[in-house]
Amino acid sequence: MKNTIGREVPVNIEGFGKTDMFIGAWEKLKKGWMDEITIPPPNKAKMPHQCKSCMDLEQAITRTSPKNGMTVSFHHHLRNGDNILVKTIEILANMGIKDITLAASSLNQSHDSLLKYLKDGTITKIWTSGLRGILGKEISKGILDKPVIIHSHGGRVRAIHTGKILVDLVIIAASAADEEGNATGSHGKSAFGSLGYAMIDAQYAKQVIVVTDNIVDFPCIPISISQNFVDYVVKVESIGDASQIATGTTRITKSPLDLRIAKLAANVIEHSGFFVPGFSFQVGAGGASLAVAKFIREKMTQQKLKGSFLLGGVTSYIVDMLEEGLFKTVFDVQSFDAAVSTSILNNKNHIEIPAGLYANPFNCGCLTNKLDVVVLGALEIDTNFNVNVITGSDGTIRGASGGHSDTASGANLTVVVCPSFRGRVAIVKKTIHTVVTPGETIDVLVTERGICVNPNKPELEERLIKTGLNIKKIEELQKEVESIVGVEKEIEFTDKIVGVVEYRDGTIIDVIRQVKP
Amino acid sequence: MKKKRRTMLYIPGNNPAMLQQGGVYGADSLLLDLEDAVAINQKDAARILVRNILKEIDFYDAEICVRVNHIDTPFGMKDLEEIVPLQPDAIRFPKTETPEELGRLIEIIEHIEDKHGLPHDKMTLHVMIETALGVQNVFDIAKLSKRVDAITIGGQDLTADMNITNNRDGSGIDLARKMIVMAAKANKIDAIDTVFVDINDDEGLRKEAEYSKNIGFTGKAVINPRQIDIIHEVYQPTQEEIRKAYKIIRAFKKNKEAGIGVFSVDGKMVDAPVMARAAYVLELAEIDFDSI
């Protein structure tokens, strides 16, 4: 059956069940509540002065009485330096636990060694916002019987509230914690910044284990994860590879192409009507997306314009803009480099936020809903402005939904920046492999070969044409790209569905099929 | 309106990725290079690639110039035979030392053009001066043919030819720079400055571009697209300069209608050179003379 953006999605998916079809970006929100029933947080009690400390992670896990078919969740703030997720699964596998549902906020190359547990039946189902490295490749080949479910950051919170993801055990890695489980990522040798994604798990998981390599005297401040949710506390030698967790300061790209695109995007933002005193802003952490911040920073300084808040994944570059007084506040759900941790710790205007406040559509006001301008990347974009950020040109899973659809849905101006092609591969195409973010939520595409405005924003197009920017129809750009790189040979897929892409409201926007071997 | 030549972006002729993206950076001219940027064993491949790229790729508004190998090398003739029939906007001829060798080049080009039934007045020539002898002969080189519409200085080769080992401050080639500008301007053609090689030194580039502009260069060659915007900023007239130029041109038009030849603006007499300078400022600011 085709959903409203024309993607072929089966009514029933093996290993997933009945699908709730995507019907439009904002349709489910109009009512003011969800059709699904929310579940209460677990019912727990502890005796006075009961000790939560465990000898090691194995002892803590044993105390949670793990069982077959359980759901274990993790957060991805340790990025590529995470040691804890794999270690936990190893322990569970050694205990003979099978049929685990892995509910990680995202998975990356540091989790490559999980592959054997996917093969031997230890892990049989995965919920995640992103999937990179070997796991992405192998799942695309069909090694799991059940499809992986890709959610957005906001959608994950909704899924936990509704019990779709029913977490039995969460492991929360922290760079500092006390014996009661108050925990933070903002200081310690493995400091990584915000713990935003783990907060919902702490509240809803039946069992919560805090793991740290840095036990501090009670109370551990700031209290990012609060002791009233925490069952056990474990001190380990190391939560991960510090060089991968805290990667110094983020540098702006030197790629002339990315810089060119970023400069054009900054010009679009400047003339969009949203670049006004008090505007709010979010950019991605790398490439052209982050480089837009450089040019916006220059324009704000030149024009003495002050913004309201910066949002999202935060880099040191964003922190610099806060410290220069260009913005009043940073709301930080995930930090990307070492300098950010210090800022969270010391700057009262740098506020750590939970994922629900960041992007969950079903509450009384997530921050993405208040966003003026967001700049996002794309692996592919079609002529209806639908964006793929999850599968590569070869059809395999290698990206992340993250906050892409959340911010695009909420922002007044959503700008996608990407080259029109990479190497010999078109990025702007007639049809794309997978839709993660619906085109109706994308306002402008900025490439090196031209700027395309969504036809649903004619006033914006008119405004930008007046500024002399190189505005063209997306169909025209697509044809131009095709004339340069040619028409690629279509990838062949089988009927097996290896991934289900959930839109932030819980409907299914697309599926990922197995690449024909 | 005459096309601006503030920046000329070098692109190695054997790099398909850079060639196909050449037009997107906003450089006024693109220099598709078959000469020094291409290794000896890549010469044939580069020539074929540039030939095909010229046929296939849209470089938008940029002027397209191909730097061929010198006609005394084994590659120069082959380059001309492949490139001249495609009539890019210009051919850049390297290491020009005498009017005679330039004459020889023009003869070859026009012979190829005749063979293909092409006119002699469409494709122009940019002449590179890269040796001390070339500098000495630059005026005669510049005036040899109407097809020559730009003279450029090749700083790296000239420094080597003059045995200068330290050219950080540019003093060693300063005389050459000025002689080249003078020869070009005496012949009413463009003068293009050499590249600034440190691609990470934005401030150094800005200073050098300001100096180039101040001594009369029309523009500057660049080796990285990141250098383009800085040079364009340097060549962009200030608001004050534009305002002044606008006033002069407006006064000129008004006085001309009234039959007054000599007049003053803000208490200063306006003569032909002042007028010419004002017109050039408006040209750089992309303000149409006729619209005033």
Topology:
The complex is a heterodimer of chains A (517) and B (292).
Chain A (H helix, E strand, L loop, with lengths): L11 E2 L3 E2 L34 E2 L2 H7 L7 E4 L9 H11 L5 E5 L10 H5 L3 E6 L1 E2 L1 H9 L6 E3 L2 H9 L7 E6 L1 E2 L5 E2 L13 H7 L2 E6 L19 E4 L6 H4 L10 H15 L10 E3 L3 H17 L3 E8 L1 H8 L3 E9 L2 H9 L3 E3 L2 H5 L13 E4 L3 E3 L4 E2 L10 E2 L3 H7 L2 E5 L3 E2 L2 E2 L1 E2 L14 E4 L2 E4 L4 H9 L7 H12 L7 E10 L5 E8 L2
Parallel strand pairs in A: 3-13, 4-5, 4-9, 5-6, 6-8, 8-28, 9-12, 12-13, 14-18, 15-16, 16-17, 18-22, 19-25, 22-26
Antiparallel strand pairs in A: 1-2, 7-21, 10-11, 19-20, 23-24, 26-27, 28-29
Chain B lengths: L6 E6 L3 H6 L7 E5 L9 H14 L6 E5 L8 H8 L6 E4 L5 H17 L8 E6 L2 H5 L1 H6 L4 E6 L1 H7 L12 H13 L3 E4 L8 H13 L4 E4 L5 H8 L3 H19 L5 E3 L2 E3 L1 H13 L8
Parallel strand pairs in B: 1-2, 1-8, 2-3, 3-4, 4-5, 5-6, 6-7, 7-8
Antiparallel strand pairs in B: 9-10
Structure characterization notes:
- The complex is a heterodimer of chains A (517) and B (292).
- Chain A is 26% helix and 23% strand.
- Chain A is an alpha/beta fold and 517 residues long.
- Chain A has a ten-stranded mixed β-sheet with strand order 3-13-12-9-4-5-6-8-28-29, with helices on both faces. Chain A has a five-stranded mixed β-sheet with strand order 14-18-22-26-27, with helices on both faces. A three-stranded parallel β-sheet of chain A has the order 15-16-17, covered by helices on one side.
- In chain A, α11 (338-346) links the parallel β16 and β17 (350-352).
- In chain A, α8 (256-270) crosses α9 (287-303).
- The longest helix of chain A is centred in the middle third of the chain and has 17 residues, at 287-303.
- The mean pLDDT of chain A is 96.
- Chain B folds into two domains: 7-234, TIM Barrel; 239-291, no CATH class.
- Chain B is built from twelve helices and ten strands.
- Chain B is globular, with a radius of gyration of 20 Å.
- Chain A binds chain B through residues 254, 256-257, 259-260, 263, 423, 448-449, 480, 484, and chain B through 17, 20-21, 24-26, 56-58, 200, 224-226, 229.
